[in-house]
């Protein structure tokens, strides 16, 4: 399944390695840094869960199970805030 950031009512910019986003639907600001910034960029274009995991393994040299846990936690946070497209 391809995961992608919601395109409507979501504005964001990267500033000094940190993603700063405004969810205008919920009137909330969100800031993401570190590995979250890399995942955010991947989700902007659309990516599978496995592609996200692989990107963290390659970029940060971490184990696959650790990367999977990080990706799952990040995706869960985005889903809770309704930031992913359906």
Q: How would you describe this protein?
A:
With about 90 residues, the chain is α+β, with helices and mostly antiparallel strands. It has one domain (about 1-80): Outer Surface Protein A, domain 3 (Alpha-Beta Complex), CATH 3.90.930.60. Helix content is about 45%, strand content about 25%. The chain has three helices and five strands. The protein has helices spanning about 35-45, 50-60, 65-80; strands at about 1-5, 10-15, 20-25, 30, 45-50. The strands form two sheets. Strands 2-3-4 form a three-stranded antiparallel beta sheet. The protein has a two-stranded antiparallel sheet with strand order 1-5. Helix 2 packs across helix 3. It is globular and about 35 Å long. The relative contact order is 0.21. The mean pLDDT is about 95.
Please tell me the CATH architecture by its name: Alpha-Beta Complex
N→C terminal distance:
11 Å
The proportion of strand residues reads: 15-25%
Q: Which descriptor suits the 3D outline?
A: globular
Given the helix and strand composition, which structural class is it? alpha+beta
Strand order in the largest sheet: 2-3-4
- SSE topology string: EEEEHEHH
- The low-confidence parts are none
What gyration radius follows from the Cα positions, in whole Å?
Answer: 12 Å
The figure for the number of domains is: 1
**Using DSSP, what is the number of strands?**
5
H/I helix tally: 3
| Biggest sheet character | 3 strands, antiparallel
Under CATH at level 1, the class stands as: Alpha Beta
Helix content: 40-55%
CATH topology: Outer Surface Protein A, domain 3
pLDDT averaged over residues: 96
């Amino acid at each position: 399944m391809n995961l992608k950031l919601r395109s409507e009512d979501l504005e964001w910019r990267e500033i000094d390695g940190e993603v700063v986003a405004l969810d205008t639907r919920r009137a909330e600001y969100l800031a993401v840094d570190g590995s979250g910034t890399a995942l955010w960029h991947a989700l902007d274009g659309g990516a599978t869960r496995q592609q996200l995991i692989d990107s963290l393994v390659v970029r940060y040299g971490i184990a696959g199970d650790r990367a999977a846990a990080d990706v799952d936690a990040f995706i869960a946070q985005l889903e809770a805030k309704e930031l992913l497209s359906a």
